Amino acid sequence: MCTIETVTHQSATGAKKKGRPRSEEVQQAILKAAATLLAERGFRALTIEDVAALAKVGKTSIYRRWPSKGILALDAFLSEFLLLQPPIDTGDLAGDLSEALSAWVKTVAGTSTGRTLVALVAEAQTDPELAVAWRETVVARARNQHRSMIDRAIDRGEIPRDSDVDVLMDMLYGPAYHRLLQGHLPLTDDFVHQVVAVVVAGAKAGSAVPSRAAKV
Amino acid sequence: MCTIETVTHQSATGAKKKGRPRSEEVQQAILKAAATLLAERGFRALTIEDVAALAKVGKTSIYRRWPSKGILALDAFLSEFLLLQPPIDTGDLAGDLSEALSAWVKTVAGTSTGRTLVALVAEAQTDPELAVAWRETVVARARNQHRSMIDRAIDRGEIPRDSDVDVLMDMLYGPAYHRLLQGHLPLTDDFVHQVVAVVVAGAKAGSAVPSRAAKV
Amino acid sequence: MCTIETVTHQSATGAKKKGRPRSEEVQQAILKAAATLLAERGFRALTIEDVAALAKVGKTSIYRRWPSKGILALDAFLSEFLLLQPPIDTGDLAGDLSEALSAWVKTVAGTSTGRTLVALVAEAQTDPELAVAWRETVVARARNQHRSMIDRAIDRGEIPRDSDVDVLMDMLYGPAYHRLLQGHLPLTDDFVHQVVAVVVAGAKAGSAVPSRAAKV
Amino acid sequence: MCTIETVTHQSATGAKKKGRPRSEEVQQAILKAAATLLAERGFRALTIEDVAALAKVGKTSIYRRWPSKGILALDAFLSEFLLLQPPIDTGDLAGDLSEALSAWVKTVAGTSTGRTLVALVAEAQTDPELAVAWRETVVARARNQHRSMIDRAIDRGEIPRDSDVDVLMDMLYGPAYHRLLQGHLPLTDDFVHQVVAVVVAGAKAGSAVPSRAAKV
DNA sequence: CCCTAAACGAGACGGTACGTCTAGTCTTATG
DNA sequence: CATAAGACTAGACGTACCGTCTCGTTTAGGG
Predict the structure, then answer these.
(1) Which fold has domain A85-206?
(2) pLDDT per residue over B38-94, tens digit each?
(3) H helices then E strands: how many in chain B?
(4) Residue B76, min C-alpha distance to chain A (Å)
(5) CATH architecture of the domain formed by B24-65
(6) Closest residue of chain C to D166, computed from CA coordinates
């Protein structure tokens, strides 16, 4: 796929780069070690020292690249997560949403990837830098994908032009995140279909559900 | 109000209780200190040592009552949170849901209570004991409240008898939790009304949206 | 003998002592471990972490008592060194000085104690707290011992009453320290006797060597 | 003056020297930076990295020339120290010794040069390579100078031919080093004169103080 | 009115991980 | 080759909290 590790703190200034360049092997060894430990023991039990030891790398080589445990974990998470969220185009809104949500559920329900996702959302609450990175690399990416589904549906005339896309997307993923995080009920196929049905119905109803003051 | 601190580890064996009884003042001092520090610095920066120091209490007096930082924080959280979730009965489903969700939003959006809630959801991912306590004292309590709203709506004939209440409730609170946790968009009044509208519409449509195989 | 570990940072304020008292076993385990490592590997290779590991003790238990590696080493050094500097009274100045210097030479020449002594002198150059402790526990103690020798010699009429005791003592130990530190020549019995002879002769000549009165 | 930096690790293999020759500017920049930092912050706080940074030089350029921090510091020290130890010939033993010791005291008492000297003596205890270099460039040099003073005194008939020159020299410098290192008493002019007086007296007494077995 | 037993404040205890620092080595690209 | 820059492994530093464990001191019943 594409290069995903956009988070790493490279000097970024695109300059001439003096001195010994950062080793790509080291980079990969760290990410792999982090991913392994994340899957084995979870985010909470992840320590920089263990990552360094497993990757056979000095701690400084980690701190040089990632400012916090959270952002390192995010990178490790992304390398697994993104591969499992395929581009979707079934030619039909209900189909698109259904496939997208199903893929997401399959990736996170009962998996270590899911547990990591949850931990990252949690961590982002206290680490502002991570919060930004999370929104840019996960939330924004997902929303762009979904927005294009909805745009296609609008183009096809399935739903009204003035739909509030943001709310629709939150109503699609919100309930799923909710079950994942609260764990009160399972993320079944049936759940996915019911949610999609309600959202699609709501979307088609469209401005029949007017924002209180023609939207703020 | 009622006694909320159901979490505290009392000897429980209802026995005759020999020796010096636990001091209620100590209990309250700890909870107050925890709440203060939670509001000031957040869950992550909360340490048992700081709580003990602020409450002028030995660490053992905390560990004697609460098995973990998470459960202590939950108790401190509850004492603030529950007071702000009033019982609701407007005589109308949309009105009930709208008021309930509005009250929730008011309590958590941009407040330290909201930040603590998020941290507790996160913490519950790794602390099973906290996860249980969380579901029992927060999730179950809320769902009972909402279930009775929906039952009343069914009795009134507003929505079909075979509605999937669980999914409806997840679609009401899921999007709200989503915005709170991801922080990508604000929790506005407008958002609340749109969500309620779609959920109510979905509920009224009812089995017109059949579960894939007449429900499992 | 007497209690030597005068350096340890006890609260000292002779107060009521609240909380759990510091364990004497821990104290001794640390000192023993430090002494062992000092003998085995020398001061430079001495690590707080290794001491903690060998003594089966947390690092904090060391930092709680000793403010620096140097002062810990000083305590460990003293417990060995002081036992080997016996009180001396031969009834004769030359005899006293000779025995004292011999005992010192025997203790430090070619021994790990000697190497530690040197390292401590070195360390004291940069650690003012250690410098003070060193002067109080080693230098002052030795000088008191020697001063009483000289006082006895004065009382016996061996040397004049107005002798410059300080210079005499520096001329006794200075050359010995010099050979120990510079390592250019060995600390032999012969060396001891020659130094003692010159010092005793100098002492007896006494004010024949006028201090400042005739000056530069 | 003369080239003093005899310590530097030149390729040494007297060969034809291929490739780019080592820059003299780099050499001097490093020594100057080292001397500056030594004076400013002392030996202990001296870092190869800081020297490299201040001299605007790569760390490798330092390691290529000096095998250790100690030897680099020795070179920096020598460039200051040697200039201040002039050749002496007053035509009289007491005068020679007095002038030599006075010059030494003036150079090291309360100066950064003195502090560095002490640190080097200390460092030499653990760094054998430095110990050798120290003895060769400082101790031996000084002893040669003094030996010639004493030889002249013997030639003049001031002191007996069979004097133990080594012990005399240790008795001259030992007490001075002692006060410098232990810091228990100041290095005054008076001290210098008393020491010289005793040493000269001892020297003149000569074999009246016979080594125990006609010397070993 | 003691006696027993638990709770209490204080703080020491063995640990774990932190993030920083320095050492000495190794790669780059550029003279 | 030497050079400047800087990444590399390694490992000690001193700090912060953890959850447990003594201490000596209350504070209650129950005998």
Answers:
(1) Tetracycline Repressor; domain 2 (1.10.357)
(2) 999 999 899 999 999 999 999 999 999 999 999 999 999 998 899 899 999 999 999
(3) 10, 0
(4) 19
(5) Orthogonal Bundle (1.10)
(6) C185
